[in-house]
Amino acid sequence: MAFMNSFLSGTMTLLGTLWHLFLAWLSIFLAPFTNPNLLWIIIPIWLSWFFAEFYQEKRSTSFGNAISNAVVPLWVGIDWTRFLVNQLITKQTTFDAFLIVKFLMCVAIFIYGLAIIIHGIKAKKFIHYLGRIRVVTYVLLMFTPIIYGVVELSWEVVGAMVIFFPAFYYIIEFIDRRIPDPESLRQDTGGETSYAQPSNYSQTNDFSGRNDFSQDSSFSGASPYPRQNTYPNNTSFSRGNNYSRNNYFSGGNNNFR
Prior knowledge:
The chain is an all-alpha fold. Helix content is about 60%, strand content about 0%.
C-alpha cells in the first residue's frame, strides 16, 4: 500500500512538472504577441517556415533547401546583435552576465547558419536534418523572445525547449503526411500533374509527308528514340545508326551495303 501511495505521488509530481514545463513552452510561442517589436522578426520566420515546409520540404530536405534555409539564422543572428547593441547604446540594458550569454547566443546562431551552408556545399548527410526548415524555425522561435527580453532565460525554459522539441517536430510530420501534396510539389518531384497523362514517342514515329506526331506520342521512362524511323521513299535506318542493307534511294539503283 505504501508503495502504491509513493508511486502515485511520484507520478502526480512528474505530471505536474511536465504540465508546468508545457505551459512554459507555450508561453514562448505566445511571447511575440506581448511585444509588437518582436513580431517584425517572428512573422518572417513563420512565413518562411510555412512555405518551405509545405511546398518544398514536405517529403525531404535537399542540400539546396538546407543552404537556403541557413540564410535565415545568419540574418537573425545579425539582427539579434543589432538589437542588443542598440540596447546598450540607449542604456536600456546593462552589461552583465545575462547580456554576455545573449551575445554568445547571437554568435552561436550565426555559426549554426554558417555551418549549414559550408557542410551543405560539401554535401554532408546530417545537413538533411540540421538544415531542415522545421529545425531552423524551432531554434529561432525559441531563442528570439529570450534575446528581446520577453522571456527570461532559465533552466526551466531550456528544459521545456528540449523536452517538447519532439512534440513540435512530429506533430508537423503528422500534418505533412495527412494533407495532400500541392500541385507545385508533385510537378517538382515528377509525380502526377495537371497535364495529360505521360506521353511517349510511339514506337514507330512516321514522318510521312505529314510531319506530325501521333496522339500517343509522349515522354516516359522508356527510351525516347523510336525502334524504327521510316521516311518516305523507303529510306530506313537501323537502330545501330548504320545504313541497313536495304537502304536505298528511290529513283536510282544505288544501294549501300
